[in-house]
Design brief:
By secondary structure, the protein is an alpha/beta fold. The chain contains nine helices and seven strands. The strands form three sheets. A three-stranded parallel β-sheet has the order 6-5-7, sandwiched between helices. Helix 2 packs antiparallel against helix 3 and helix 4 runs parallel beside helix 7. The protein is globular, with a radius of gyration of 19 Å. 28% of the residues are buried.
Amino acid sequence: MEVIISGTGIVSPIGIGMEEFSDALKLGLSNFSKHEIDHLGTTYEYPIAQIKDFNYKTEIDKLEISEELKLKAKRLRNLSTGSMHAVYSALAAWKEAGLDLAAPDPERIAIVASGSNLQQATINKTQERYREKLRFMNPTYGFNFLDTDIIGSISELLQIKGEGQSIGAASASGNMAIIQGHRLIANGEYDIVIVVAPSMELSAYEFQGFTALGAMATINPDKDIKHICNPFDKDHCGFVYG
């Protein structure tokens, strides 16, 4: 069975939406900067390709979808930053695929989300907030700490009733999610599969863990941070989170 990509959406450090993103790629743009984290009075610095100026409700309003769907999207509560990016991207792809005009069978649609431990920064903030008042923990935390939380949000929003699954394969998670989505359609199990790759939110612990491993690039004050990502150079110093 032929499988096609009929809709796309993206939130990235160099552009929001496929047009802005593809234009930035053609121009060879990058967006590297320094990310500072204060931990117990000490400031730690890490290189980052940061997504800036993303206002969830404003970007949802820009999408050419029904007002009803926009309202439902804006009413979703307790979304992490990565979940907001994923919901926006899924809606953009849904629109581009023409699914807002059709009436697809919700039981013939599946969702595959890529990545694991996706919401660490949000989880860390919530745990700190309720450290001294645990009995008053927001009950939605029971959903939010799970990687499948994003699947639940998109399923609720688009009334999808097919299976939802998350695939963790480290740096290959995105590719594996696409492969799994292809399999589900090619095998005739579903007509439509939404594949989402939420941005992974790192807390200070993940930043420092990757740095201690020697896997994450470190800031060199003698070099321009704009050129910190150079994976094929003899002087490469690790990956840059983005």
